[in-house]
Amino acid sequence: MFKHLKQLTSLFAMIAVLFAFTTEAMAKKSKTLKNTQKKGFVRCGVSQGLPGFSNADASGNWTGIDVDVCRAVAAAVLGDANKVKFTPLSAKERFTALTSGEIDVLARNTTWTLSRDADIGLTFVGVNFYDGQGFMVRKSSGITSVDQFKNGISACTNIGTTTELNMRDFFNSRGISYEPVAFEKADEVVAAYDAGRCDTYTTDKSGLAAQRTKMKNPDEHIVLPETISKEPLGPVVRQGDAVWEDIVRWSLNTMIEAEEYGITSSNADSMKTSDNPQIKRLVGAEGEMGAAFGLDNEWNLRIIKQVGNYGESYKRNIADTGILPDRGPNQLWTKGGILYVPPAR
Amino acid sequence: MNNKIKRILPQFLTILFVVLVFGFFTINAQVNMDNRGIDFGFGFLSQEASFDMQFTLLDYDGQDSYLWAYVVALLNTLLVSFLGIIFCTILGVIIGIARLSQNFLIKNSAAWYVEFFRNIPLLLQIFFWYYAALRALPLPENAEPWFGVTYMTIKGYYIPSMIWENLNVFMSCLIATIVAIIFIRIYAKKIQEKEGKQLPVLYISLALITILPLLSFLIGGVTLDFEIPALKQLAQTSFIFEGGIALPPELIALVLALSLYTSTFVAECVRAGIQGISKGQKEAAASVGLTPNQILKLVVMPQALRIIIPPTTNQYLNLTKNSSLAAAIAYPDLVLVFAGTALMQTGKAIEIVGITMLTYLSISLAIAALMNWYNKRIEIKEK
Predict the structure, then answer these.
(1) CA-CA distance, A341 to A255, in Å (whole number)?
(2) Which ranges constitute the DSSP H helices of chain B?
């Protein structure tokens, strides 16, 4: 018997190692906040490069309004907006990466839909960009409206997105036969459309505007005026950690509400002595706004100081880069848009 | 007693270990899915897929179920694999034999071909054939016809489609021809064994295969019309061809890349097989007066095949599995459609990836079984 003792021990050791690697995943409640603070960075899933939303420059610095949501969370829970580890994900990979625990926040221009919210084990925490699906065509084609689409049109798009479904609904309802050409990566869609493989390129309008900047001759393409769907894009977290969900939700809300009250990254500190109690709450000078999350009282001040309010983020990432200078629906409710968040109090 | 335990215990422990590992992963997955509110089940397969596919062999519409989408996508994968295997075999055999040619130019170009295509990653080759070739191809309105009636354009290769009347008569004629040819071959073999005479089987077969179907046209009432693709304007500068059959550029690029890449490996298998036959065999065959072609066909190849088949089977399996790279260039294969779009829409990652893995496993095992059967058939029968 003793001869086999060695084999037995190594067997048990192997099993033990296997269990050790997965106990974290087996814990009943994922303590995302605790893990994040222990690791020292926020694990954030972003796109593989969509200017204005999440895009890395030559030296690997990520910018964009989706990126800013993750930075806001990092500023709130870790005190430093730069402590984020970005994971570029394809549309297909994104939800699996989140549910499997590879990332903790998914800020990847993701449309909030019932089936995604209810089925897949995800929770949408809000909307950071109100979008809609549109079509891009070559200017030289003379097409100025989707009414001019004819049978046999070929449309390039991404797989694994709501786009594929909207496109079908749209063409079917109009009785137009079409050829869907669906790629896995956005860059490949752009390359194929640009080469002339497709007559039209369809995705969210913000995406069209952003991808247009990547084309050989951006001026040769136009985005048609029609919007065929509602695409509220927002950050997503895993189901089952209500506190983490709240932290991400209120990090985004803080940015939007800060704009509403005129608090910017440059004047945030001076706002501490404001007469308006709501402003004071937003910069951590009144109330206990962080305690419920297990955070200190200045978590929201750090977001505003390090990342800025929503308007600053929009201007920096989307307006100044020429993608969509007009804020459209993504304007505050007080200024004719539909950005309206619950009060932080 | 002690010996018995010694024999059984390691096996028992191995089985226990395997069961434990599987059980552990199953439970772990279940617990985690429960925690995250994800259901496990295959009910989604009957739900409406509600996405469209660019290219299908059978009728498919977004109203069909995910199960049907799976079948249609699987057929697309099988189509690419089938075409790839056919082309890579033809090309591989030619190149493999060319590498052994006495002609300096042929020998070296074949060697260069093999070294070039074998050593560039397949994905890059797929991208090359798709994007580079795509950009080089003309838009439909500028396309010059190939062979008068087919058009190679950036949107696909348009070929005329055939419109048959009394197709069944034609088909019966064709089947009759094939049966006749098989009988003639058997008869020719008998004659050769009995009298040593060689019948010109090839010429007889060729004659049959032209005459019989031709007769079906003349007296069987079979007619064949071609629908020739015609240019249609969609907008000022956007055109397509209508009518006929459109082969999407994604399919063409994929088949091209897969067969060029895999043919290099097949060529090496063929070369190894031929070189594995001892020189004495060829010399002996030459000394009884066989021509070089006959030596290859009657003496070398039958023996070489036994060396060639097993490694070539591996290449066929590789090609089939590599066809999943289709996802990169929008060819709607199993991975792009089922493990891509369907997975995304339903969120059933474990179920769909599981089904996909099982499917590839089954395809590979089926190909391996077929090749093993063929290998058995041609191996030396010891009497």
Answers:
(1) 10
(2) 2-35, 66-98, 104-118, 122-127, 133-136, 167-195, 201-219, 249-275, 279-287, 292-294, 301-322, 343-346, 349-378
- With a cut of 70, say whether residue B318 has pLDDT above it: yes
Residues A140 and A125 in one domain: no
Residues A123 and A243 in one domain: yes
The answer to whether residues A258 and A222 belong to one domain is no
Q: What is the distance in angstroms between the Cα of A49 and the nearest Cα belonging to chain B?
A: 17
Of the candidates A229, A258, A287, which is a domain's last residue?
A: A229
d(CA A59, CA A175): 48
Kindly determine whether residue B232 and residue A15, on different chains, have CB atoms separated by under 8 Å.
no
Question: Which residues form the domain of A162?
Answer: 133-229
| Interchain CB distance below 8 Å, B50 and A165 | yes
Question: Cβ contact (<8 Å) for B237 and A183?
Answer: no
pLDDT by residue (tens digit) across B208-247? 888 877 887 787 777 788 888 888 888 887 888 887 888 8
Buried b (16+ CB within 10 A) or exposed e, B46-62: eeebbbbbbbbeeebeb
Q: Tokens for B289?
A: 């007066």
Interface test with B, best of A3, A167, A179, A202 (most B CBs within 10 A): A179
| Pair A122, A245 in one domain | yes
pLDDT for A8: 61
Give yes or no for residue B185 having a pLDDT over 90.
Answer: no
Q: Which residues in B lie closer than 8 A to residue A161 (C-beta atoms)?
A: 344
Distance CA B252, CA B254 (A): 5
Across the interface, do B51 and A26 touch by the CB < 8 Å criterion?
Answer: no
Query: pLDDT-based confidence at B366, cuts 50/70/90?
Result: very high
CB atoms A196 and B154 under 8 Å:
yes
CB contact under 8 A, A4 and B10: yes
Q: What is the mean pLDDT of residues A108-122?
A: 87
- Residue B139 belongs to a domain: yes
Inter-chain residue contact A168 with B51, CB threshold 8 Å? yes
pLDDT band at residue A246 under the 50/70/90 scheme: very high
Same domain, A181 and A121: no
Chain A CB contacts of B349 under 8 Å are: 96, 99
Query: Given a cut of 50, is residue A30 above it in pLDDT?
Result: no
User: What is the tens place of the pLDDT at every residue in B298-315?
Assistant: 888 888 888 898 899 999
Per CB-CB distance under 8 Å, the chain B contacts of A164 are 51-52, 341
Three-class DSSP category at A74: helix
The enclosing domain of A154 has a CATH number of: 3.40.190.10
Q: Which residue has the tokens 């309802």?
A: A173
- Residue A21 located in a structural domain: no
Number of domains in chain B: 3
Q: What pLDDT, on the 0 to 100 scale, is given for residue B144?
A: 80
What would the pLDDT profile of A281-319 be if each residue is shown by its tens digit? 999 888 888 888 888 999 999 999 999 999 999 999 999
Say whether both B243 and B117 belong to one domain. yes
List of chain A residues whose C-beta atoms are within 8 Å of the C-beta of residue B20: 15
Chain B residues whose CB is inside 8 A of the A157 CB are: none
Query: Do B50 and A11 count as a contact with CB atoms less than 8 A apart?
Result: no
Distance from CA of B321 to the nearest CA of A (A): 18
As given in the structure block, the two tokens for residue B374 are 């063929």
- In Å, the largest CA–CA distance within chain B is 90
* ipTM higher than threshold 0.85: no
Residues A224 and A87 in one domain: no
Residues B369 and B258 both lie in one domain: yes
Q: Closest-CA residue in chain A for B138?
A: A196
According to the model, what pLDDT value does residue B40 have?
81
Query: How many independent structural domains does chain A possess?
Result: 2
Same domain, A116 and A140: no
